[in-house]
Amino acid sequence: MKVLQFTLPVAHENSVIVQEDIMAAFYPYLHRHHEAQLMWIQEGEGTLLAGTAMHPFKPGDIFMLGANQPHLFKSNPEYFAQDSNRQSRSTMIFFDPNGKLEPLFSLPEMTLLRGFIQQYAGGFKIPAAMAPAVFQQILAIREAGNVDKLTLFLQLLKTLYLANNELTPLSDVSTQQVSESEGIRIGHIYNYLMQRYDTAISLEAVAAEAHMTPQAFCRYFKKHTGQTLVTFLNRLRVNEACKKLTTSQTDGIATVAYTCGFNSLTNFNRTFKSIMGTSPRQYLDGYKAKVAE
Asked: Which of 13, 81, 125, 252 lies at 20 to 30 Å from 116 by C-alpha?
């Protein structure tokens, strides 16, 4: 049996680490690392779980994740099919503001950038309009030598800092302080739910998977996620519905509702609007209008 870790080591001698991954699907387990991570999705689609918040991802997206922030880039189901020829590719920059770079960030001249990193401990997504420029900076950092790599990295942080007013945090960091063992346990529960969101999931089944009574599980899940199981499931299903509604292969709103685990169109419409602030039809029309621009 494979032994999983919640806190993954990023082994490297440098203070700014650039890593490129090409694989069938992204690493499928909830984890964290001491380093902050800038993640450029070059190929692959799925759902980013950052803390307890969910965000769809696609090629061209860039996310910043805070140091020690639990996260999971869950590839869509088609990436796990045995006959799939799809691949997932990303370029990442890791840096530990509390490790080797701490003396640098402690300098008076770094006050603004240090505050910026602390402000977004819950991570953020790079605005689409900025992405091409950030792509180029990431590539330059990847190709640079040691001294130039650090200089270009600081220039990248400055670029992100200057876009502060356009950034929205990915998640609230208040519920993210968990132990190693609890992180593994919560990750197992998340995977169970994300693999079965399109089916009827009972509290009893999830509690049994976690080896708890239903009552104990409800308390545990709310304590560690800040949400009830129903709320988390609804957000998960609506997130999947958003992805399906904005694909060219969508078969209509009713089909999307049932394939995302909702037992009625009325329930889907009500839940979708409560989470997204708009109806599925308005969401779809708004997406089509943006594409047509």
From this structure: 13
Which stretch of DSSP H or E encloses residue 37? strand 36-43
**How many angstroms separate the CA atoms of 278 and 180, rounded?**
38
Helix 280-292, helix 265-276: angle, nearest 10: 60
pLDDT digits (tens, 9 = 90+) for 30-71: 999 999 999 999 999 999 999 889 999 999 999 999 999 999
What is the rounded average pLDDT of the residues 114-129? 94
Using alpha carbons only, how large is the chain's radius of gyration in Å? 20
Does CATH place domain 223-292 in 3.40.50.300?
no
- Whole-angstrom Cα distance, residue 225 to residue 179? 13
Domain at 16-166, CATH homologous superfamily = Regulatory protein AraC (2.60.120.280)
Q: How many residues does the chain have?
A: 293
Domain residue spans of the chain: 16-166, 223-292
Whole-prediction pTM value? 0.88
Q: Rounded CA gap, 103 and 226, in Å?
A: 35
